[in-house]
Amino acid sequence: MSGNQRQKARGFLTSTYLCKGLLLILAFSLLLLAGCQKGDDGELEKDGDAAPENLVESKKELVPIEVNDGQFSGISGWLSNEKVVYTVSKGNTSDIYEYNLYSGEKSLLYTSELPIVDVLISPDEKNLFIHTSVSTYEGLLTVIDLQGKVLNSQSLTAAELTYTWNPYDSNLILISAFSEDWTFTPYLMNIEEESLSELTLNEPFVHWLNSEEVVYLDWSSENPALFAPLVKHSIFNDQNETILDHIFQVKGFDQGVMTISAENGKMDEAVYTFMTEQFEVLSSFSVPQLTNYSDWLIPYSDFIGNESFLSFQPLHSSEADLYQDGFQLINTKLSSGEKEILLENAENEPLSCSPDGKACLYGYYFEKLIHLESGEIISLMKEEIL
Fold first, then answer.
1. Would you give the distance in Å from CA 344 to the centre of its chain?
2. pLDDT higher at 154 or 223
3. In whole angstroms, what is the distance from residue 347 CA to residue 23 CA?
4. Fewer CB atoms inside 10 Å of the end CB: C or N, the chain?
5. DSSP E strands: which ranges in 218-268?
């Protein structure tokens, strides 16, 4: 081989080795890049690691409810953080469905041959209480499990009915049956015993304090007033005890009671007070009050367990029919009274919050949903209602 040939051979080998080296470096770099992926927040995540839970949840999209046969009657409430119960009416019959808001899966729970007046979900989310109308003055009260099995069914003669499920003992439901003249008879439904027994109560609108006691406002029929004493009553031994005076409204929550009153005669402010079931004060706050002739208009609200209270609050005091400045949706921590504004300029409409407190059903049919973290309001219906 000549010197010139040897020089060409060395150049060829050198070029070959350089190309192979560059290819190896490039391949190794590609392997490194394949082991990483870029997250939505711009940071690199190792392959195989799960994305943060809140990142996964933020990607979940709601699947609107679609009603092809019949008329949507409304959502009753939450069965879990993802599932709700809704009713569709078809003439004189009605269907009750369980629906997953994120997968769109639905299942028929119950079909009623009578018009459905109301559906309640048990506090333990295992049963449904269904009020159907037999006639103008007769109601049928049926309790079913989530497989549609009837656990208890009772008929009552009444012009109107109210009911409240015991959150401390889901076997008990307190019912008040009204006559045309608004006299009432209270009953206790025992689901396991399949019984309905009369009670002795001075007032029809009560709130459970624990598994055996209720609280109510003892209004005077002879001297109508804006405020009344708060009374504790044992449903099993009929003992009464007056706890507080000068209360406008009372509402129960998990292991506690909320009262609404006025302080020092200030009728333009409502005082919300949160107490334990032993009536020890946890916190309180005042809000501007809307008057409705000789009454107060109390905005809609809901509790998230025994931790938070969500309520619509007006910006200033006014007559209710003249007020046009919108409402703030405010989250109040029950233990400290600390507040957080979740929505501005919102409509005062009914609320029902999910068990985990991340979302609330909203609207007179619960046809909307509020994502509490973002404040986004989403329609749950594929088409407009009505």
1. 20
2. 154
3. 65
4. C
5. 228-234, 240-247, 249-253, 256-261
